[in-house]
Structure formats: structure tokens, C-alpha cells
Design a protein that fits this description.
The complex is a heterodimer. By secondary structure, chain A is mainly alpha-helical. Chain A is built from ten helices and no strands. The chains are: A mainly alpha, B mainly alpha.
Chain lengths: 223, 148
């Protein structure tokens, strides 16, 4: 049965593009209050996927096995195809980014379980190609490679967020007043929240965090 | 056989009202929920949201008029015609009210964030109303051809 959330969707503010605003239109407390209007099953599904989709730092100690186990759990309990699509989208993006970082560090093609999704084997087989032969699927790879080479972590983050934002907007537009529109809002709010937290005072701290991520986190995640 | 045919006649007479009313309930419910949600975000201007939410009520009114027009002494001769006309009219009113409710909810959701598009955002709901009016008018026209 398809659940529709007329009241919940109408109670959410319009989200401006994260690159063009300085204000968060809704507090986390208010967002959580509104999300409590979701059916219990949908709320659980949202929370489960959120651990993989949310735009926050992954603990450095988290291993590839743990990430894969979280992914498997989400997939096993998943009932919504669009939620599955966005989870796969984010995981594929992280897999490609991990591959780009490894290659930039001069490593050889990985093997075994170093990422998730159907593209890991293609990346391994076409390691020497600039876009791993995936240019048509991930047209942002050359730009991401450029920012990686320049060491421009902020632009790289913006690019990745922009790709997710676009995907979530497409999902939202295609499913008015349904769960898909609600989770797309929640995840877009998360991107906006994260982006607005990158202010001048925190820039230095954030830069160090990104350096840590580039040098340690993803090596551990998809080592 | 005759009781079955007469039962079909009764179904035909009452379907426009019953199905139209069911559609109105669902449609107004959709619009009403959206209006209630928008009220959480807005500081004022609630009245127009409630007004838009009530738009799918008209299908019930069309159903009442069609039912009264169809109402006559049932015979084996006129019951099949009443059944066909009534059930299809009712179905059209049901679906138009449901679709209109969704269009009203979308209008409320949009104009909540962008009040200047309020007028144009209810245009799709008005177009759906137009289709319901077509069904209503031509059901009345065709009812004249069914024997009294």
C-alpha cells in the first residue's frame, strides 16, 4: 500500500539550493518533530538508510566490512526502490571516490572487497583508464579528479553534494506527497545543514578533518 | 431476472451521489491535510487554504442533481440505461474528486512557500473541475433519452 503524506509534506518549508543560501530554513528539532508524522515502518527505513546517506564524517575506525554490513542490512530491509536507488547512488559515489584516491596515491588496482556495488569489478579491470570506463555513468569523475589533483577539498565536497542534491531533487519531483518526497527532503536538509556548517571559523578545523579523511578514512573504508 | 435488472436501476440512480461523495471525502481529505500542514508553516492566510481544500465538494453536489434527475419509476426497460449512465457518471465524479484533491494539495504546498503563485497554482484543479462539469451536464442531457 502506498502511503501519502499530505500534511507532512505541506508542513515542510521549501529548501533553497545549498550553494545559494546562508540560512537553514528549519531547525533539526523541528525536522525531527515533523518526521514523527511518518508511519513507523517508513521512519525506521529512513533512519536505517540515514547512516549510509547522511553527509557526515565516517569514523576513522570504521572498516570496509562494517560499511558493507551496514549496506547489506539496509538492502535486506529495504522496501522502497527509490530509497535503495539513493543508497546505491551514494555508495557508488564513495566507491569511485575511494578508487580515485587510491590511484592518486599510486596504488595498484584493488581486489577483494574494497567497495560496494556493481562497479568495483569494472574499476579493477579498467584501473588505468582515466574514468575507469565509467564516464557515461559518472560524468563528474573528470571534475572530481581535477579537484583531487588541485587539493581543493571544498570544491570536491561541493561537487559531491551537488550530485546528491540533483538526484534527490529528481526523486522528490517524481513522487509528490509520498515517502520518497519526505526522505528526499530529509537528506537534502542534511546536505544543506552540513554545507552551512562550513563557516570561516570552522574552516581550519574542517580542513584538517578533510585531510584526515583523505589520508586515513577512505583507506580504511575501502582498503 | 427482473429483480436483478431493477436492482441495477437503483444502483444507477444512486451511484452518482454515492461515488461522487466518496470522491469528495477523499479529495477534501487530501486538500485538508495539506492545508493543516501548511498552517504549521504559515503565520496567516489560512482561510484561502481551507477554501481550496473544499473544492472537491462540488462532485457531491453534481451527484445529488444527477440522482434527482435519474430518479423515476424503475422498469425493465429503463433500468439498464440508468445503470450504465449512473455508474459511469459516478466513477467519473469519484476519480475527478480524488484527482482534484491531489491538485489542491499541490497548490497549497506551492503557494505556502510562494504566495504570489496562488492563483495560477489552482488552475489545474479548476481544469479538473471542468471535466467533472462535462460529465455532469452530458449525464443530464442523456438522462432525457431514458424512458420515464
Amino acid at each position: 500500500m502506498i502511503r501519502r503524506y499530505y500534511q507532512l509534506v505541506a508542513s515542510l518549508p521549501a529548501l533553497p539550493d545549498f550553494r545559494q543560501t546562508k540560512l537553514l530554513p528549519m531547525s533539526r528539532l523541528r525536522l525531527e518533530e515533523r518526521m514523527s508524522l511518518l508511519h513507523r515502518d517508513d521512519l525506521e527505513e529512513l533512519m536505517r538508510a540515514e547512516r549510509l546517506i547522511a553527509w557526515r564524517r565516517q569514523p576513522v575506525s570504521r572498516t570496509t566490512e562494517e560499511i558493507v554490513a551496514m549496506y547489506d542490512e539496509v538492502v535486506a530491509h529495504n522496501r522502497n526502490q527509490e530509497l535503495r536507488n539513493i543508497v546505491d547512488f551514494r555508495m557508488n559515489m564513495r566507491t569511485v571516490m575511494a578508487a580515485l584516491r587510491m590511484r592518486r596515491q599510486g596504488k595498484a588496482a584493488p581486489s577483494g572487497r574494497w567497495g560496494t556495488g556493481p562497479y568495483t569489478r569494472i574499476i579493477e579491470a579498467r584501473w588505468a583508464e582515466p574514468e575507469f570506463g565509467l564516464g557515461a555513468v559518472f560524468p563528474w569523475i573528470p571534475e572530481a579528479q581535477k579537484f583531487l589533483d588541485q587539493g581543493d577539498a571544498m570544491e570536491l565536497e561541493k561537487l559531491m553534494m551537488g550530485q546528491s542534491w540533483k538526484k534527490l531533487s529528481q526523486i522528490s519531483d517524481g513522487h509528490p506527497f509520498r515517502f520518497e518526497q519526505v526522505f528526499a527532503f530529509a537528506y537534502k536538509w542534511d546536505i544543506l545543514h552540513r554545507w552551512l556548517s562550513y563557516d570561516a571559523e570552522k574552516a581550519r578545523e574542517r580542513f584538517e578533518e578533510l585531510i584526515m579523511e583523505v589520508t586515513s578514512d577512505h583507506q580504511n573504508l575501502f582498503a | 431476472m427482473e429483480p436483478l435488472v431493477l436492482t441495477m436501476g437503483w444502483l444507477g440512480i444512486f451511484s452518482p451521489l454515492a461515488l461522487g461523495a466518496i470522491g469528495s471525502m477523499i479529495g477534501v481529505g487530501r486538500g485538508g491535510l495539506a492545508a493543516a500542514g501548511a498552517m504549521l508553516e504559515m503565520e496567516g492566510g489560512y482561510g484561502r487554504f481551507v477554501g481550496v481544500a473544499a473544492m472537491p465538494s462540488s462532485q457531491t453536489i453534481y451527484g445529488i442533481v444527477v440522482m434527482l434527475t435519474f430518479n423515476r419509476t424503475l422498469t425493465v426497460g429503463n433500468s439498464p440505461g440508468l445503470f450504465g449512465l449512473g455508474v459511469l457518471t459516478g466513477a467519473a465524479l469519484l476519480f475527478s474528486a480524488m484527482a482534484q484533491g491531489s491538485a489542491c494539495a499541490a497548490s497549497i504546498n506551492t503557494s505556502k512557500s510562494k504566495p504570489e503563485v496562488f492563483g495560477i497554482s489552482i488552475a489545474p484543479a479548476a481544469v479538473i473541475e471542468g471535466f467533472a462539469v462535462f460529465v455532469f451536464v452530458f449525464a443530464l442531457v442523456l438522462a432525457g433519452a431514458i424512458p420515464k
